[in-house]
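Ops channel
N.P.: pipeline sanity check, posting one input/output pair.
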């Protein structure tokens, strides 16, 4: 049996020493086509990825070591992400290894360009990061955040990582938790909002709850209440555009500062009070859980202080409360 935990990166290649005695069909000199078939039969690596490697000569078996070309460089020369005007985009690294990268996205920075040649995006920051490190891998974001929401964003650094992390997203094995300041006091104090979301026709970029929309599920718990505001911790089960903002507006508790979804104007905050608190995902190679926390930015701390919501964050216990209305 091949022990993937023994794998080590060597430049563009991933080297995996084979056990002694050798697994059947994996002797030195075995043709790459047969090595690929054996690996596919074992089911330990995606067939799509192995086929892609085989097509570019990326499978070798020599001297008891299986080599897979898992880290080919990407040519970022003249790429549109690097063509924007202004200061080069930078972002804080929260987690990084050979397979994945987690960057902190500040409020006001979009994840990807809204039009050709747009600069100052988190995608640009990710590319500049790998280029500066001398490791020009094909970084791709796995999920997004609204432009005015802060928090962690996950990037894959090679094709296999992208395949596995995309699959984890589809299977809801990537967990995202947020902190939000909302108007009013949600009741029940903890529960689930299960209400479909679709486009609000004629009012782009708004979304709204509607029967024909895509299913959207938001779990929440109230952390603290003060006056006419509350701090809530949110976990997404689905990831629709503006989901948290739409759902809390729908139940009568729009986010502080979120004028697009009905919050009263607040001169102290120019955007919604929403921060991505943490991100957890299965590592694309080892499968082990990775948990990344994002520190609360100063603007969010200031909003908490002004609202009287600062202090120890004691999360209330989960409840069976469930909101399902549209």
């Amino acid at each position: 049996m091949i022990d993937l935990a023994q794998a080590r990166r060597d430049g563009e290649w991933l080297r995996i020493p084979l056990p002694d005695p050798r697994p059947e069909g994996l002797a030195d000199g075995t043709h790459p086509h047969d090595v690929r078939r054996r690996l596919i039969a074992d089911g330990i690596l995606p067939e799509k990825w192995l086929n892609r490697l085989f097509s570019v000569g990326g499978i070798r078996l020599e001297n008891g070591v299986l080599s897979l070309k898992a880290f080919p460089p990407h040519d970022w020369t003249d790429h549109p992400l690097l063509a924007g005007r202004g200061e080069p985009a930078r972002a804080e690294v929260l987690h990084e290894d050979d397979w994945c990268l987690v960057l902190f996205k500040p409020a006001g920075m979009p994840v990807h360009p809204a039009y050709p040649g747009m600069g100052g995006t988190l995608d640009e920051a990710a590319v500049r990061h790998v280029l500066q490190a001398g490791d020009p891998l094909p970084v791709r974001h796995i999920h997004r955040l609204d432009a005015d929401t802060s928090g962690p964003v996950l990037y894959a650094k090679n094709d296999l990582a992208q395949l596995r992390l995309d699959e984890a997203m589809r299977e809801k094995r990537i967990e995202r938790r947020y902190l939000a300041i909302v108007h009013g006091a949600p009741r029940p104090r903890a529960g689930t909002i299960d209400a479909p979301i679709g486009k609000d026709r004629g009012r782009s970029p708004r979304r709204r709850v509607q029967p024909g929309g895509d299913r959207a599920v938001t779990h929440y718990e109230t952390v603290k209440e003060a006056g006419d505001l509350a701090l809530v911790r949110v976990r997404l089960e689905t990831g629709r555009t503006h989901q948290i903002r739409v759902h809390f507006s729908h139940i009568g508790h729009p986010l502080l500062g979120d004028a697009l979804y009905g919050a009263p104007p607040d001169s102290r905050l120019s955007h919604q009070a929403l921060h991505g608190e943490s991100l957890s995902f299965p590592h694309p190679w080892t499968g082990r859980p990775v948990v990344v926390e994002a520190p609360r930015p100063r603007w969010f701390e200031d909003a908490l202080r002004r609202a009287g919501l600062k202090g120890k964050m004691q999360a209330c216990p989960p409840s069976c409360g469930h909101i399902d209305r549209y």
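N.P.: looks fine end to end. The helical segments are 32-42, 47-55, 122-132, 159-170, 243-250, 298-307.
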